[in-house]
Amino acid sequence: MPIEIQVVADADALAREAALVVTGVVAERPDAVVLAATGNTPIGCYAELARLRATGSLDTSRMRVAQLDEYVGLAADDARSLYGWMDRALLAPLGIGSERVVRMPVEGNDPQAAARAYDAAIEAIGGIDLAILGLGPNGHLGFNEPPASADAPTRVISLAPETLASNARYWGDGTVPERAITAGMSVILSARRVMLLVSGTPKAAILDRMLRSAPDAALPASHLRGHPDTILIADRDARPAGSLEA
Ligand code: F6R
Q1: Angle at 31 between CA 27 and CA 33, to 5 degrees
Q2: Model confidence over 167-216: pLDDT tens digits?
């Protein structure tokens, strides 16, 4: 199946359309497992989901969330962790307690074993119903930095220089951790539905490359072209009129 592409006017429209997709999945399956990206792109969608919940249009009382990626080496309660970010932006506003979250483990001295435990936990809850993803500046998904093959498992990775540069905005004066655990491409591609959100002019070139590329480890997001049910929602800045539709 080719990727379904929806181009919307701006970031606000993207947030609304993305929230509709999530609402649809949760309406169909109230205990849906949602794999949730952090970062700038999905913030509006998460805020819209909180609004829909507040107005009674979305019931999140059974919805489950799986963490997509996490820095290695932070304390579990470090507010700068991606879990901390996700808690503030998504879990707390949607009233999702930690008992309904598959958390990416970061503590302990065997992160590779922790990665395997994460894959086992995802399998044990029946897999992922919807993966909400952002597009990295180098085409990464989660922290699957290039090169990443379609069957890459959840694992510890070293962040690419461009990812470190991009993440620096969240760290103020602090040093961005250089290692992370990411849900593997194999986990992302096993999601029954994938929603890729892309916003803003800085993402236009990498999105265009992704849509022209055959599935290729050098551009991990291009693996979505082999996924059976992916929707891409991009705003006009990221997907200007006149760019080729894939
Ligand atoms: C974060 C993540 C990353 C981001 C990507 C885009 O959990 O998985 O892949 O989605 O780096 O980041 P933003 O949205 O900040 O441009």
Answers
A1: 105
A2: 888 887 778 899 999 999 999 999 999 999 999 999 999 999 999 999 99
Tell me the two tokens of residue 13.
Answer: 């429209």
| Closest residue CA from atom 10 of ligand 1 | 134
- Angle at which helices 43-54 and 11-28 pack, to 10 degrees? 60
Question: Is this prediction's pTM over 0.90?
Answer: yes
The C-alpha angle 200, 39, 139, rounded to 5 degrees, equals 65
142 Cα: distance to centroid of ligand 1 (angstroms) = 7
Contact yes or no for 223/185 (Cβ under 8 A): yes
Q: Which domains does the chain have, with CATH numbers?
A: 4-238 (3.40.50.1360)
| Ligand 1 binding pocket mutation candidate from 14, 67, 68 (most atoms within 8 A of CB) | 68
